[in-house]
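Suppose you are handed a protein chain with no further information: no name, no annotation, nothing but its sequence. What can you learn? This example shows the usual starting point.
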Amino acid sequence: MDKDLPLIRKMRQGDADALEAFVERHYANILRYCRAHTDDAMHAEDCAQETFVRFFSALPTYRHYGKAANFLYAIAANACRDLFRQSRETSLEQLPETAAADSGQLDTRLTVRAALSRLPDEVRETAILYFLSEQKQADIARILGIGLPLVKYRVRRAREILSKELEGL
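A reasonable first move is to predict its three-dimensional structure. Written in structure tokens, the prediction is:
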């Protein structure tokens, strides 16, 4: 049984502490996922917050199948897509400023981000969930609504493409 089910039941009854516990449990992972989809930390935070707003607004009709985290990732993916539609172009000026990062780290991050951006959309989504969000392949299949063999293929394909792209790194 999913450990979120008791929290969801309490949240439906209006328990604010359960709501806070749910957000604390999942916010960091959802933010990291959103961060992988945008170069701007503020946009990532907006998408993460929008994810929880959408989840809580759907809570009265939410049907618990499997893990609540899978539903959160699906909502986050939609929130990120909505943001991407709103701002089609991103620039280097939107990259986060990291005082502690030296130029080598920044170059590596830019190279990895660029390699990820060149992946086909469906492969990129799977790669982000698998490599950056560290989701299990079965969970990715549920999040994306596709079969496990297709997830395995996309992970393998992402590995192949990224290894060629990042060979000299």
